[in-house]
Amino acid sequence: MSSGLVRIALECEKRHRSGTKLFHEPKWTMYCNGRKCGYAVSRGGACKESDWRVLNTVYRVTVGAGVIPTAKSIDYASGGGKELGELLYMRGRFERVVGTRDSEAFYMMNPDKNGGPELSIFLLRI
Questions:
Q1: Strands 35-41 vs 93-100: parallel, antiparallel or unpaired
Q2: Is the dihedral of CA 76, 37, 9, 29 positive or negative?
Q3: What's the distance, Cα to Cα, between the start and end of the chain in Å?
């Protein structure tokens, strides 16, 4: 984000069942500033213990970004262990704009009220 605006588009394919809500789509293709950069899969909506740990860590933060140290278990051939890692987070105020039932957008609003959003996230069903 230090280089300017970031636009993330998550696209999913339209399936034959038309009653599925946009957030309940299971598979997404991710584009960042127009370049295809990966895939995303829905985890089903329920928070795991590790998710609650992160949310409890950042609940007092209203706006900002940072790094949370994490430890993940590794199943080594010699008997397991722990590896230290980092989790990057960003928290801010987002405005939600619903276009149709197949498109939504989230714009992270700058707290200074200067200029437009620095981060835009688009959800599209095509």
A1: unpaired
A2: negative
A3: 27
